[in-house]
């Protein structure tokens, strides 16, 4: 099964656990791993120090998170790619999976217990909206 496997990351250790699981699945299937970070705003922060001024975009911070994870997981020869997508995490993962015709989305099970299971979580929402298979990794 070649193709693309999508995994969402946000810089947390639980997301990294899901990413490691996704990397193992991608390697065993000969698939590319696409690391996705969602950002819910498109704000820009201006940082001024002395005469220097920097513009830090929310999308750039999100892309850096995805790039760092893709680089780490790709160090062993796994084909990886990355992107930052504007939107809520569950919507961003589903939209990116549809855009690249992914075969699988890997999400962690954080939020699948207790009240989170009733109110919803990223994993629950993705499983209901995705047009491809969804793998829920044990990360909690």
TrEMBL record:
**So which domain of life are we looking at?**
Bacteria
Show the CDD domains listed in the entry.
USP-like
InterPro entries in alphabetical order: Rossmann-like_a/b/a_fold (IPR014729), Universal_stress_UspA (IPR006015), UspA (IPR006016)
Q: Name one Pfam family in it.
A: Usp
List each copy of the UspA domain by range: 2-138
Q: Record's family? A: Belongs to the universal stress protein A family.
The molecule here is called Universal stress protein
Source organism: Arthrobacter sulfonylureivorans
């Amino acid at each position: 099964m070649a193709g693309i496997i999508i995994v969402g990351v946000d810089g947390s250790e639980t997301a990294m656990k899901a990413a490691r699981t996704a990397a193992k699945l991608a390697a065993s299937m000969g698939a590319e791993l696409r690391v996705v970070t969602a950002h819910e705003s498109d704000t820009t922060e201006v940082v001024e120090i002395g005469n220097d001024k920097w513009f830090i975009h929310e999308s750039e911070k999100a892309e850096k998170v995805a790039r760092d994870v893709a680089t780490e997981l790709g160090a062993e020869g796994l084909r990886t790619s990355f992107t930052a997508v504007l939107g809520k995490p569950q919507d961003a993962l589903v939209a990116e999976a549809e855009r690249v015709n992914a075969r699988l989305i890997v999400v962690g099970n954080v939020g699948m217990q207790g009240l989170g299971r009733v109110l919803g979580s990223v994993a629950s929402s993705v499983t209901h909206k995705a047009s491809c298979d969804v793998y829920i990794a044990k990360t909690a």
